[in-house]
Design brief:
87 residues; four-stranded mixed β-sheet; 6 strands; elongated; binds zinc ion
Amino acid sequence: MVEVICDNCGTIKKSNHEWILGNEQQKHSLRSGSVRKLIRFFDRWYSRQATELGAIHLCSVKCKEEFARTKGMRVIITQRDLSMHNY
Ligand SMILES: [Zn+2]
């Protein structure tokens, strides 16, 4: 069993909690040669994607915003934005 920890505050994920799952991506600009970091967020929690390289785990919307701000990353929401669900 893999332990999932919030990448912002270090909280350990409980299995009955739905967290926010993101994926870190890099975009290379051919024109300037610069690399931009982006976070793409999934529309829900996927256990398989959660263990992939570059996965970002965040326990709350607050942590999601703080994480993106401190990292200076652009946030891309591909599908509808997440709200927190407790099952
Ligand atoms: Zn957190």
